[in-house]
Recover the amino acids of this structure.
């Protein structure tokens, strides 16, 4: 059973507009929530994270929102740029071993 | 560049064979994680080492094993390879006080024919 779900396999937005990527999780005991970006033929690159005690974290154009009651995580990219085109994975950490559990990813395409 | 290195980049082998994948973590990182990315399963955690000791196991087959050496590099050994083992294998590392943030290497693409 999937603990982390990214229900949209793909998303297409225009350059300059907002990209919103969504993620749902099942276990309320997760401690940290992360977003990774992945280009083809490269490893995942850490983007931004949020701990379970917060509901928002911002880093430049990237903002992550955590809604614990809905068990929902989202990543906002504003403004979107063509270089943001990649697969975005949400991931969660829970327990003492810090293993990451990933969603299946969303392919973001930002059109010029 | 994450600072995590993996070799080789590509590996082609036959069923029944054994291969070794190597990972060097970022300088100062004590934890090493191995993940497998296959088309149908996505990114799956295999195993974690911390300063030479096994810390956690995930969906790792018995045919697979890993170790972390005193210099902190790690090796993932895959034996009796099957077609279904074809995948991307990633190594990640994290700092002692920032274990929630893992930095990934470029991966090793394994193709079993």
């Amino acid at each position: 059973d999937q603990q982390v779900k990214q229900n949209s396999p793909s998303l297409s937005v225009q350059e300059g507009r907002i990209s919103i990527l969504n993620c749902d999780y099942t276990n309320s005991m997760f401690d940290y929530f992360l977003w990774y970006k992945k280009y083809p033929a490269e490893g995942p690159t850490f983007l931004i994270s949020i701990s379970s005690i917060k509901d928002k974290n911002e880093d430049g154009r990237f903002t992550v929102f955590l809604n614990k009651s809905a068990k929902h995580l989202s990543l906002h990219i504003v403004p979107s740029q063509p270089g943001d085109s990649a697969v975005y994975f949400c991931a969660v950490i829970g327990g003492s071993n810090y293993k990451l559990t990933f969603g299946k990813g969303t392919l973001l395409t930002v059109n010029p | 560049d994450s600072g995590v290195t993996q070799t080789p980049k590509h590996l082609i082998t036959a069923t029944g064979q054994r291969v070794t994948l190597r990972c060097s973590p970022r300088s100062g990182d004590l934890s090493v994680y191995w993940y497998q990315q296959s088309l149908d399963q996505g990114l799956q955690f295999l195993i974690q080492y911390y300063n030479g000791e096994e810390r956690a196991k995930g969906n790792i087959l018995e045919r697979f094993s890993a170790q972390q050496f005193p210099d902190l590099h790690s090796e993932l050994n895959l034996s009796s390879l099957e077609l279904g083992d074809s995948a991307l294998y990633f190594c990640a590392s994290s700092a002692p006080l920032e274990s929630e943030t893992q930095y990934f290497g470029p991966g090793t693409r394994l193709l079993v024919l």
Remarks:
- The mean pLDDT of chain A is 92.
